[in-house]
User: Which sequence fits this backbone?
């Protein structure tokens, strides 16, 4: 059977010597592209969630590192190396939980170390070359993850997802959404349920938007409706992304994921995590060791700009939670399908 290849939207582009980002804080009402020419602008875009999703953050940071050193006046490798590390450390403070950010920065530093004998101008070019390679490889990784995930699903299934592990969070296809795009290419009819994902509604604003644009059968639900939808037999699998996988198979993902995993376990529904190898952090022993970013109180007290809570109220706003490995059926990387306790094998 002939299949049609669908090309999802690309949130990160390198054009005319600047980084071009789709401002995801303006979706789905406005489509605005940002043109960033400095590392400081990239830091701000990552921090403000104008670019978000672990792989996309990594790509943006890689380009940001190049923007930070392309004007370097360093005359020696040692001086250039010090400046590169300063810029990398700075970009790393934008969002601490997504390990892809640090993976991308470390990969570029490793490339510079390998090419240390080159002139400074060629080292700068190598930084950009590595950033471009990271983006190209991510698209291939996402499609491969999607192929593996598709073997766990069947035509006609209902699948629930949380946050935006989609094309808007990666170079293409997404991680957890990749099988939805591939199923569409094959003529399958998966019915996707997208949690709205409070407090900043990535599921409502982004996942629902991109899947609808792709012609995929998607239904938006409030986060607190997941249990009822499961109990009604409408969901046969849960597929989510992740920002970091610990060595023991615990995963950090957008706040609310842990609750979805507990509900899936209670209803006997498999819970799958899509994770590029860049999100697998074997240096972090367990989920308890993953740093959890806390976001501004205004994200809760002023939903979409409108005040919805009393002045001066105490607010706790962690951006992520940790799902223990015992609730996860399988973690799917580009190298295959693994039980959580076997995740180290994905990197061998």
Assistant:
């Amino acid at each position: 059977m002939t299949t049609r290849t669908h090309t999802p939207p690309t949130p990160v582009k390198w054009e005319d010597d600047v980084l071009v980002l789709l401002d995801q804080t303006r979706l789905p009402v406005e489509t605005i592209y940002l043109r960033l020419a400095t590392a400081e602008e990239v830091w701000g875009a990552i921090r403000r969630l104008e670019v978000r999703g672990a792989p996309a953050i990594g790509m943006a940071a890689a380009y940001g590192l190049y923007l930070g050193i392309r004007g370097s006046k360093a005359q020696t490798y040692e001086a250039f190396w010090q400046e590169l590390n300063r810029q990398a450390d700075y970009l790393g403070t934008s969002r601490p939980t997504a390990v892809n950010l640090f993976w991308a920065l470390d990969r570029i530093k490793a490339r510079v170390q390998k090419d240390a004998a080159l002139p400074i101008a060629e080292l700068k070019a190598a930084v950009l070359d590595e950033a471009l390679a990271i983006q190209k490889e991510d698209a291939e990784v996402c499609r491969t993850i999607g192929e593996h995930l598709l073997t766990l699903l069947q035509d006609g299934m209902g699948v629930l997802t949380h946050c935006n592990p989609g094309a808007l969070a990666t170079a293409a296809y997404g991680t957890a959404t990749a099988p939805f795009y591939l199923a569409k290419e094959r003529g399958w009819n998966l019915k996707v349920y997208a949690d709205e994902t409070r407090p900043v509604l990535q599921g409502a604003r982004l996942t629902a938007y991109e899947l609808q644009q792709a012609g995929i059968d998607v239904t938006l639900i409030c986060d607190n409706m997941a249990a009822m939808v499961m109990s009604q037999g409408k969901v046969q699998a849960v597929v989510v992304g992740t920002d970091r996988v610990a060595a023991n198979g615990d995963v950090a993902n957008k706040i609310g994921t842990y609750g979805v995993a507990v509900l899936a376990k209670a209803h006997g529904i498999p819970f799958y995590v899509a994770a590029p190898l860049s999100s697998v952090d074997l240096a972090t022993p367990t989920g308890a060791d993953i740093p959890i970013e806390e976001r501004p109180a205004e994200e809760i007290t002023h939903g979409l700009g409108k005040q919805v809570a009393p002045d001066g109220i105490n607010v706790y706003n962690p951006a992520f939670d940790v799902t223990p490995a015992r609730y996860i059926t399988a973690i799917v990387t580009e190298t295959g399908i693994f039980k959580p306790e076997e995740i180290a094998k994905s990197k061998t």
